[in-house]
Every structure is written in structure tokens, then in C-alpha cells.
Amino acid sequence: MANKQKKAFVYLWDRKAGVLEQTERGYCFSYDPEYLASQKAQPISLTLPLTDEPYESDRLFPFFLGLIPEGWLLDLTSRTLKIDPERSFDILLATCSDCIGAVKVVPIDEEND
Question: Among candidates 104, 70, 90, which has minimal Cα distance to 6?
């Protein structure tokens, strides 16, 4: 069975800024073209400056890792949600649609895409 690709919209100040996805090769973050065209566009992170080129990495980008719980809170979260704490992307999708701060990560429902 093929590994299902997972995707999420990334919002900055409630504006859709881009899409983060887990791929067979790792991870990809792309800014939304409409967001880039806006005069109010700003990077979601200094490590992910505005560009129309996708960012690709074999590891989850450190900025997104910084959004998920750490330490005892990660342990509690992973036990409660029954997600292996090593599956950072799954924890990100499960917990970061209502993060503290300006950025939120909202899973994309493939069926209602």
C-alpha cells in the first residue's frame, strides 16, 4: 500500500500563506501564489523567506518543529493522541491548527480539497 501524502495549509495571521506537505522524499513547503502577490505578504519565518520556489528537505523544517510541544508536554500529547512522539509531522497536524502565536497549520482533507 502506498504511503499517503499528508498536506496542511499554513496560515499567518489568519491568511493562507502556503502549503506544507510530507512527501516520499521528505517535506515541502510552498508559499501560495496569491499570498506572494499581496503587498502584505511576509515570511512565516526568517528561515523561510518569501519565494515562489518550493522549500524541500528530508527533515521537517526546524520552524515547524518549534511549533510542536516538547518534553513532558510532548509525552502527554503523544499518549493522549496515541501518536508516536517520533512522528513530528503527525503531531504538528494534530495540534497546531490552534497554536499560540501568528502561525497555524491546518490539515487538508484530501476528500474536500
Answer: 90
Q: Report the SS3 class of residue 57.
A: strand
Rounded (10°) angle between helices 71-81 and 88-95: 80
Smallest CA-to-CA distance from 17 within 46, 1, 37, 47 is with: 37
Pick the more confident residue, 10 or 81.
10
Q: What's the whole-model pTM score?
A: 0.88
Picking from 63, 72, 71, 58, the residue whose alpha carbon sits closest to that of residue 92 is 63
Phi-psi domain of 22 (left: phi exceeds 0; alpha: psi -120 through 50; beta: other): beta
Query: Whole-angstrom Cα distance, residue 19 to residue 5?
Result: 13
